[in-house]
Amino acid sequence: MIFHDLISSILSERESSNKIWFAGDFHNPPEISYQVNFPRLELVLSGEYINEMENHEHAIKKIKAKAGDAIFIPPNCWNKPGWDTDCSVLSMLFGRRQLGLSLVSKRKGEVGFFDIQKHSIQTRSGFAIDNILEALSSLARETIKKPTDELLLQALLQYSKVMLEAPIEESHNRVQDLYQGICIYIQENFHRSITRDNIAERFSISSNHLSRLFRQQGHMTLSDYITWVRIDRAKFMLKKYNFKLNEVSVRCGFKDVNYFCRVFKNRTGRTPTVYRISN
Predict the structure, then answer these.
(1) Handedness of CA 139, 140, 143, 144 (dihedral sign)
(2) Phi, then psi, of 75 in degrees rounded to 5
């Protein structure tokens, strides 16, 4: 499997000069930044991967991650990739039930990516990986990170490699794997214009099959799940940041603020303003 081989190569080729950056959440995340409620790890395989993110002094800076470097993003922290250079990046998303792996490659000056590969397996909740991720998230808040950061990164990669070598039995359920993979995709892209048709195309299934999948596996419609993810993120933003309602609306994938307010009240029983005041 390509992802197992990639992680093996990263482990064997890491050098003392390789850097590890940690993302933060002190500042309001800029538009088009990546922010989800589970930890992520981005590993630069080739080229130069430029990101806007916070440093340990809470200042927003542009960093240039080179081949061999890594970026760890704790839950609800953010990073903003530039995607305007030649680079190849392996992203690992540690969801509650699923480990999502994504390999993307970009050429400078070209729109879109020329190579995208994705894979997901069921995670082992309650095992050592939870403690490794928690330790990395805690380390992100500390000033002195070396050499602990490298040791924890090696442990995380080794554990992920073992999971890919011997996935737990439940991961043989391809239908459930597909459902969980689509859930992770929606959680990553809730702020974008995502529809039944483009999600179905992304996962190479029919739109009708996608709808059946969510009724059978999630016991809700695809539309309801997308709305649930967006409202859940809106609740977080209303509590965490001082964004205006129209900005919360746009950042959560709602094009019209009035529609956002109606949906929010329908789902929570309170208007966004009342919810913010009460929290």
Answers:
(1) positive
(2) -55, 135
Coil, helix or strand for 251?
A: helix
Clarify whether residues 107 and 218 are in a common domain. no
Count how many domains the chain has. Answer: 2
Render 92-161 in DSSP notation, one character per residue: EEE-SSEEEEEEEEE-TT-SS-SEEEEEEEE--TTSHHHHHHHHHHHHTT-S--TTHHHHHHHHHHHHHH
CATH code at 256?
Answer: 1.10.10.60
Q: Phi/psi of residue 115, each to 5°?
A: -150, 120
| Alpha helices, DSSP H, located in the chain | 2-13, 128-139, 148-165, 174-189, 196-202, 207-213, 222-240, 245-251, 257-268, 272-278
Contacts of 142-145 with C-beta under 8 Å, sequence gap 24+, read: 143/56, 145/20, 145/22, 145/56
Residues 245 and 151 in one domain: no
What are 83-135's pLDDT values in tens digits? Answer: 999 999 999 999 877 888 999 999 998 877 877 888 888 776 678 899 999 99
Residues composing the chain: 279
Q: Are residues 150 and 193 in the same domain?
A: no
Q: In which domain, by residue range, is 146 found?
A: 2-169
Q: Are residues 156 and 184 in the same domain?
A: no
Q: pTM, whole model, 2 decimals?
A: 0.83
Q: Give, in degrees to the nearest 5, the angle at Cα 137 between 133 and 140.
A: 140
Return the number of other C-beta atoms located less than 10 Å from residue 98's C-beta: 20
**Residue with the larger pLDDT of the pair 171 and 278:** 278
Question: Quick check: 23 and 54 in contact, CB under 8 A?
Answer: yes
17, 35: one domain: yes
